[in-house]
């Protein structure tokens, strides 16, 4: 009978519901190993969501700039580039102007095979292209080390100018 009681006591000491000092130590070690990986994963999710949001905002700003370009705004004054750049900057408010590069060029007619004329928004019925590049600074400092510094986001949109004057 004593032998049977000894076996029962040994199995009770190692039942899954029973927690002793050695189990608490194992739990602490497991948490110490898993927690940093979970934190890095969480930081990566936050940073990638922020990066995607900035890229989408840049695309929307370029589309808005191209819509301004096709209307012919500034054609009478001879400066069509300023309203386009202003519209892109307006959509991207809060972005440092030194990190943003907006370029406008045009293709004669609808032929995109030729050379894009830089610094020209084109004539009526020409194709205009608005491009913006933005130096995205990661929010979390550790991500700068992972990515090796700022990330260049680029967006481009092309549209055909409206005939605000007779087409060539």
List keywords for this structure.
168 residues, 4 strands, 48% helix
Description:
Helices cover 48% and strands 18% of the residues. The protein has one domain (20-160). The mean pLDDT is 84. The protein contains four helices and four strands. It has 168 residues and is an alpha+beta fold. The protein has a four-stranded antiparallel beta sheet, covered by helices on one side.
Count of DSSP strands = 4
The secondary structure category is alpha+beta
State Rg.
31 Å
Whole-number count of domains = 1
Unreliable stretches (pLDDT < 50, length at least 5) are: none
What is the CA–CA distance across the termini?
Answer: 110 Å
Helix content: 40-55%
Strand-residue proportion: 15-25%
The coarse overall form would be rod-shaped
Largest sheet: 4 strands, antiparallel
Count up the helices. 4
Strand order of the largest sheet: 2-1-3-4
Mean pLDDT across residues: 84
Spell the H/E element sequence: HHHEEEHE
Question: What's this entry about, in short?
Answer:
With 168 residues, this protein is an alpha+beta fold. Helices cover 48% and strands 18% of the residues.
Strand-helix topology:
Elements: H1 2-13, H2 21-70, H3 81-91, E1 100-107, E2 117-118, E3 127-136, H4 141-147, E4 151-160
Antiparallel strand pairs: 1-2, 1-3, 3-4
Helix pairs in contact: 2-3
């Amino acid at each position: 009978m004593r032998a049977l009681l000894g076996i029962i006591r040994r199995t009770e000491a190692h039942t899954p519901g029973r927690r002793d000092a050695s189990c608490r130590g194992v739990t602490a070690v497991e948490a110490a190993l898993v927690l940093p990986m979970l934190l890095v994963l969480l930081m990566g999710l936050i940073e990638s969501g922020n990066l995607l949001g900035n890229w989408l905002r840049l695309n929307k700003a370029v589309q808005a700039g191209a819509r301004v370009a096709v209307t012919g705004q500034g054609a009478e004054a001879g400066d069509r580039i300023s309203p386009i750049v202003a519209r892109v900057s307006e959509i991207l408010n809060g972005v440092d102007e030194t990190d943003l590069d907006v370029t406008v060029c045009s293709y004669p007619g609808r032929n995109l095979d030729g050379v894009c004329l830089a610094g020209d928004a084109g004539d009526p019925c020409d194709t205009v292209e608005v491009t913006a590049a933005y130096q995205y600074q990661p929010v979390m400092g550790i991500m700068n080390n992972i990515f090796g510094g700022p990330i260049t986001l680029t967006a481009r949109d092309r549209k055909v100018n409206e005939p605000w004057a007779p087409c060539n």
